[in-house]
Specification:
The complex is a heterodimer of chains A (175) and B (133).
Chain A lengths: L4 E4 L2 E5 L6 H18 L3 E5 L8 H16 L3 E5 L3 H10 L7 E3 L2 H21 L5 H6 L11 H10 L9 H8 L1
Parallel strand pairs in A: 2-3, 3-4, 4-5
Antiparallel strand pairs in A: 1-2
Chain B lengths: L3 E6 L2 H17 L4 H21 L3 E10 L2 E10 L7 H4 L13 H8 L2 E7 L3 E9 L2
Antiparallel strand pairs in B: 1-2, 2-3, 3-5, 4-5
Helix pairs in contact in B: 1-2, 2-4
Chain lengths: 175, 133
């Protein structure tokens, strides 16, 4: 079954309705990846409240989706892992790296907003510290001359202050 | 035995069927919230193992008794390539496929009893039990 994806401002919300088969997953991954590019989303929320089981396969899948979206410039937050599901995941030793987690949608949106604000603040306060992260987020490595502060200023000039993830995109615009 | 269900495992949808059946029987046996998820996850892991390594097999879920105790018994059987080195397969983080290598060792942690028997070229049988406490 296809996973419906909603757009909410700068974020995408995917609601997983039933157990994911391999094909559903591929579809979700490609769909999200495509839309992150199309809508310039900086955050993706994946709601897994409907999943009664998150086994190693599901974890691996969610992890790979999140990592791929990270390379596309969006941060992923998983929402609605049930307490008993969390219990089993811990027992199995399953972890989700580079992925945020929140209890519900509201908290997830807040998480993304805070992250955005924090990133923006860090950019303004400290130029050098963010350089590595900018480079990793997909910017062109052969443009070392463009410092994060410049990228930021450029983003600001466009009238939309953006988070660390989005900055490489603003650079693309400027090219 | 009356309460027994047998599920063929040939595609991902049947993994879901297997864990749903397991959950239904576990509810009948009186297992509670987190134990139900533990059992369903264990069945899910073991069924996926069948699908990934043997392509075809079955999961049989039944009630089991031992003296005064009772619980749920899950037997996962396939006629796939078998496992040459069971100790290695049971190692945490070891995987011949591109998995996490958590399936078998993880499932063993989840259940009270776990037994694996495999003959190369003939197949693998995993028997696992969870007792009602």
């Amino acid at each position: 079954m296809q996973v419906p994806i909603l757009k909410q401002g700068n974020y995408l919300i995917a609601s997983v309705q039933s157990a994911l088969s391999d094909d559903d997953l591929r579809l979700l991954r490609d769909d999200l990846s495509d839309r992150v590019g199309r809508f310039r989303s900086t955050g993706v929320i994946i709601d897994v409240t409907a999943l009664d089981v998150i086994d190693s396969f599901a974890t691996r899948t969610l992890q790979s989706v999140a990592q791929m979206l990270k390379l596309r410039g969006a941060y992923t937050v998983i929402v609605g892992i049930r307490p008993d599901v969390a219990f089993v995941m811990v027992q199995l030793g399953l972890t989700l790296a580079d992925v945020g987690a929140a209890l519900d949608l509201e908290e997830a949106l807040e998480h993304l907003n805070n992250r955005r604000r924090r990133n923006l603040y860090e950019h303004r306060a400290k130029d050098t510290g963010e350089a590595g992260r900018l480079g990793r987020a997909g910017s062109s490595p052969n443009r070392p001359g463009l410092s994060p502060s410049r990228a930021n200023r450029r983003a600001d000039r466009e009238g939309q202050p953006r988070s660390g993830h989005a900055s490489p995109r603003s650079m693309e615009h400027g090219r | 035995m009356a309460d027994e269900s047998r599920i063929n495992i040939r595609n991902p949808a049947e993994i879901v069927t297997a864990r749903q059946q397991g959950r239904i029987l576990a509810v009948q046996l009186g297992f509670d919230g987190s134990e139900l998820t533990v059992i369903a996850t264990a069945i899910s892991e073991i069924a996926r193992n069948i699908l990934e390594h043997a392509k075809d097999g079955e999961v049989v879920i039944s009630r089991c008794n031992h003296r005064k105790r009772y619980g749920i018994c899950v037997v996962a059987r396939d006629f796939g390539p078998g496992i040459a080195d069971i100790d290695q397969a049971m190692q945490y983080g070891y995987s011949t496929h591109k998995g996490l290598g958590i399936g078998l060792p993880g499932t063993k942690l989840l259940m009270d009893e776990f037994h694996i028997m495999s003959v190369v070229g003939q197949g693998t049988t995993v028997t696992m039990k969870k007792w009602r406490h």
